[in-house]
C-alpha cells in the first residue's frame, strides 16, 4: 500500500510540473493577445499613409482639387461664356478742349468744348461690376472685363481647361513614347540600345524654345491657306514638344530595366518562354511605375510653364479663345500692367498654384513610394 501511495504521489507531482510548464506566463499571454491585434497592411495602404503624412503633399493635393473644380465646374456658375462680349456699354469718358481767341472788340474769349464718349462694349470694367449677357440678364463681373469686354473670371476658368488638358495630354504621350523606347533599349541592349541612345543624344542637343518659335512662325505663314493649322496651333506645337521631350523618360526606364532584367523572376519568365513584349510591359515596366508616376507629376508643372510661355509670346491658343498664357499676354501693354492688374494677375496666380501643386504632389509621391522611407 505504501508503494502505491508513493507512486500516486510521484504521478501527481509529474502532472503538476507538466501543467506549470504548459501554462503560459502573463507576459506570454499579453504577447499572444497583441499578435491577434496585429493587422497586415498592404503596400498601397503604406504608400497612402506616407503620402498623407506629409503636409506639403496634402497642400498640393488640395490645391489640385480646387483648381480642377474651378476650371471644370466653375464655368457653370459665372453666367458668361468664354468668348462672350458684354455689349451693355462701358463707362462714359469725357474729353475737354479749350480754345482762346480775340474778339472784334479786342477782348480775349475762352471756349470750352466738352465731348463725351460711351463705348458700346463694356471694356476694362472694374471688379464686382455688373453687365448684361447675351440672354439679357444682368450678371456680375467678379474680376471685371478685359480690353475686348469679355469676362475675366469666365476666361480664367475656360483657359484653365485648355492649359491643364494640353499639359496632361503632352505628359501622357511623352511618357508612353519614353516607356516604349526606353523599354526596348533596356531589354534588348546591344545595337538596339546604341541606336536609341544616340537618337536620345541628338534630340537632347536640340534647343526646345527656338524650335517651337520657328515652327510657330511656319504655321502662321500658312494661316491664310490652311486656317485649321492656326486654330489648332497650340496642339500641334505641344505635339512637337512631346516628340522632343520623351528622352528623360526613356533614360529613366532604360536604367531601371537594365537592373531589373537580371532579377530571379525574369530568369523564371525566360524559362516559361514568355514573349519579349509580355516580359517588358507586364513585368519590367510595372516595376518602374512608381518612378514614372513621380516623373509624370513633376513634368506637369514644366508643361504648364511651356504653355504659358507660348501664350505670352502669342504662339499659343489664338484669341478670342482663352488660356492662362495668352491672358498674361495682356501685361505687355504698360497701361494694362500698371492700372489693370485684374486682367493679368489672376492667371499668373493660377499658373503658380498649378505648378506648386504638381511639384508638391510629385515630392510626396517620391517619398511615399521609396521603400527605404521609415518615417
Automatic annotation (TrEMBL):
Record keyword Transcription present: no
Domain ABC transmembrane type-1 span(s) in chain numbering: 160-362
Family in the record: Belongs to the binding-protein-dependent transport system permease family.
Transmembrane segments: 56-74, 162-187, 199-222, 234-253, 284-306, 343-365
Biased segments, Basic and acidic residues type: 1-19
UniProt keyword terms in alphabetical order: Cell membrane, Membrane, Transmembrane, Transmembrane helix, Transport
Chain spans, region Disordered: 1-34
Annotated organism of origin: Candidatus Scatosoma pullistercoris
Organism classification: Bacteria, Bacillati, Bacillota, Clostridia, Candidatus Scatosoma
Locations listed in the record: Cell membrane
Protein name as annotated: ABC transporter permease
Membrane topology, record value: Multi-pass membrane protein
CDD domains from the UniProt entry: TM_PBP2
Principal localisation: membrane
Any GO BP: transmembrane transport
GO terms for cellular component: plasma membrane
